[in-house]
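>> received
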Amino acid sequence: MITMRTKDWKSISGTILVLIAVALVVISAGCSKGPNTENTPTSTSVENTSMSSTQDSTLMLKLNGTFSGQLSVPASLAEEVREYFEKSNTTLYSFEVEVVNDNGKPQASITLYLLKIVPPFEPKDFEVLINGKPVSRETYVPVYEDVPVVIEYSGKQYPRQLTAKVKEKSRARFTAKKSELDKHPGETIKLGTVEGFALLAHVNDAGNYTFIVKGRNGEELATGGLVVG
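>> returned
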């Protein structure tokens, strides 16, 4: 009887050990699956962040046309901005004023520059400012060669300095006698017109003048001061 009980106990113990081993295998398999399920959405989140970063990135755009230089712009605008600046039309107007004495001897001179810009198209997604002035269709700005440019896009500004390659030039020269100017302190005198532009001289005081270029509609386009001793 004792022998029989011992054998039964050994059989039961063996069965229990087998069941415990099976349970451990199942638990181990369940634990290994858990992390894989959690990792899937994390991987997608990282990809989305990367895509968003790429869309908002900027690149350095090299220009070699009507305007040359480099512009830092949003990557999505690069080709449109390139076409805008490289294919714009420009005309440079220069207005030279020489102040002479009664004998016609030159005393001093000043030259005002006016750049006419005609862009190839009107951009819908961004705005261009040159020397602080928004460019729209035919625009005149008082600059020459070194041109401060700003691209406005999505509430941000991208400033840069470009060089203008002038395709056409128009030059006008004016002469004014100092003695005649000094007769009109506090007044503005019209010196002449050229191609629809008017050149005026405001006499601040004797020998102190401000020269003004006005457009066809009377708007002030360029100014410059000159002091003659």
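>> Residues 1-10, 15-54 have pLDDT under 50 and may be disordered.
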